[in-house]
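Instructor's aside before we start: the two examples that follow are unrelated to each other. I chose them only because their records fit on one page, so don't look for a connection. First example below.
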Amino acid sequence: MSCRTPRLEGWISTYAFVRLPNWFKEGLAVMASGGGGAEFVGVAEARAAVQRHEHIAIDDTGSLWNLSEIRFERAPSGATWSHATVMACRQAGMFVSYLHDADGPGFARMMNAILDGRPFAEAVNAGYHQDVHSLWQKFAQNSN
């Protein structure tokens, strides 16, 4: 199951698209669609899971061996595969929305770097002058 739409793929090369982390591609799709693909997990439920440290893994690159699944750092306990998938989409969407809302110009710089074909880690640094793991920590702290 994927919450992604193929829109970004039309703007960058296939190689550049594959190199983007899945959580980012899926989260961008959820944000752009106003929550599409994550309808069955609410923000409060996803935020509570982040507080319990049951959250997605924040990779800074994609993988040829995993083209669509969002990995978990620690999966929600007792969740079915489909519920975990939707939870991952919701958390990814919340994080991408946080990146957008916390610093709109930084998000624009990051997206421009992505559209220029720069590696994701480099694009994040160009946008925010810090790495994505530091940004996730700020997001997670704001989820409390």
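Example two begins here.
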Amino acid sequence: MPRLFTIGYEQVTASAVLGELQRAGVELLVDVRAVAASRRPGFSKRQLAAGVDERGIGYLHLRGLGTPAEGRAAARAGRYADMAAVYAEHLRTPQAVAELAELKEIVRAGRPVCLICYERHPDHCHRKIVADLVCEDLGIAAEHLMADPL
């Protein structure tokens, strides 16, 4: 049975996130940030990819599934409904459609996959929208991981 997880790295360390991924048995971390850069140590694309690699976990960046700047600004302001509306529009773009199909195939193949983005709570993040779309198509439920906060 395919397994899909999500995790956010807000208010947590890279080692806490990596430990949580390992405990859950994640084999592939899929970065769904439009911009895979972070001021938080360990969460920029290269650092994150190296960190998961050290633990035997693969890394894939699907930039097309990231939230456009307008949606990120809405999320930062706590306007989650606005973020969701912006993101719903974004999901109609050719790149987002293609990358969502790619993600569904990866999850369908049965490798435990985890989506990562910044926001700690999945209800405040577009990764839950992505997870819901994948799960609806595959008839599974996502598991939302939470690493211990700082």
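Helices lie at 14-24, 45-54, 69-76, 80-90, 94-108, 126-138.
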